[in-house]
Design brief:
By secondary structure, the protein is of the alpha/beta class. The protein is 40% helix and 18% strand. The termini are far apart. The protein binds zinc ion.
Length: 346
């Protein structure tokens, strides 16, 4: 009788273990920590990828008295799942709220791993995009379709690598890409279940967390997360530490929308790409760049230059003192976007 009970207990434990394991998404077989957490103010963290797992964009999280708020959830269900696992090393409070700064795949493709009781907040445009065709957009399509070629290329490089250190580095890159592809195959774009159009605020104890739409810029529906008491702002790709992708942007309105950001009282920026920074002058550098991109590219269009050629000829090198610019040229996807905006068909 005792023996039977023991066998049954072991069986039950195995079942429980199997159930727990099945919740683990594909693409999480990485080595070491996936994130570096930078605590910028008490309870406020910026999460930046270490390179052991593809996470692409940064996230942030706010540890409150009773819960945790996550801002952006990375490129895949795997990346978001691992983020939650690693947050458990900081706090055992539950994540009850997620905020998407915008719909782009590297900021919102982790949404599906959250329990339906978790509130996912985003601009109504973000919801519309994730409900409809966000994965059909060129930015994601280019990213996804490039992965198998990347994997093949890495395998060839590994086969011919002779230096052990170089080979090990390539093997990590291969594992990262294969994990990412495995997770993208499980992707089910999941929209925010709570939307806003201009502004909302969450209150957690003494903490106020504002979600604000400051005008069209990086997309038609970027929001920033602003903590007025702590003077911290999480900006997604509306303002990054370097340049921001322009594929779905309104470059001719973006600089003005950034003026609205400047009016907020903050001292620390947690961007969607790159490290946290305190230098507010970065906003002005980026505004100047955006204004010049718009005027240079529209002048080339007026001269009848093709988007491909304009992408090579537009010369923004005068901004390279402040922004990561290697030489002349603007990414084609941004130039194509400006061309279609001028033609009135974004
Ligand atoms: Zn983006």
């Amino acid at each position: 009788m005792k023996r039977l009970a023991l066998v049954m207990t072991i069986g039950l434990l195995a079942l429980v273990a199997a159930a727990a394991q099945s919740r683990r998404p594909a693409g999480t077989t990485h080595t070491g920590k996936a994130f570096r957490f930078n605590q910028v103010k008490p309870g406020i963290y910026h999460a930046v990828g270490t390179g052991s797992l593809a996470v692409v964009g940064n996230s942030s999280f706010i540890v409150n008295d009773d819960d945790v708020i996550v801002v952006d959830d990375h490129v895949s269900p795997a990346a978001a799942w691992v983020l939650l696992e690693e947050i458990k090393t900081v706090t055992n409070k539950p994540v009850r709220t997620v905020i998407n700064t915008h719909f782009h795949f590297d900021h919102a493709h982790g949404n599906q791993i959250f329990d339906p009781t978790v509130q996912i907040i985003g601009h109504e445009f973000t919801r519309r995009m994730l409900l409809n065709n966000s994965t059909g957009m060129p930015l994601y399509q280019n990213y996804l379709t490039g992965m198998p070629t990347q994997i093949e290329g890495l395998k060839k490089q590994i086969a011919s690598a002779t230096d052990p250190a170089a080979k090990a580095k390539l093997q990590t890159q291969l594992q990262v890409t294969e994990n990412n592809l495995a997770s993208q195959k499980e992707l089910k774009p999941t929209p925010p279940n709570t939307t806003l159009t201009t502004q909302m605020a969450l209150f957690r104890g003494k903490r106020e967390i504002q979600v604000r739409f400051l005008g069209r810029g990086h997309t038609a529906g970027d929001v920033v997360v602003y903590l007025p008491n702590e003077k911290v702002v999480m900006t997604g790709d509306f303002l990054t530490a370097g340049l921001s992708n322009m594929s779905d942007s309104f470059p001719n309105e973006w600089a003005d929308s950034l003026d609205a950001l400047k009016k907020l009282d903050f001292d620390t920026v947690l961007p969607g790409h790159g490290d946290a920074f305190t230098d507010k002058a970065k906003i002005e550098y980026f505004q100047a760049y955006l204004r010049d991109v718009w005027s240079d590219v529209s002048r080339l269009k007026q001269q009848g230059v093709s988007a491909e050629d304009a992408s090579k000829r537009a010369d923004l090198t005068k901004h390279k003192g402040h922004l990561p610019i290697q030489g002349p040229g603007v990414p084609l996807i941004g130039v194509q976007r400006i061309y279609s905006l001028i033609d009135g068909k974004p």
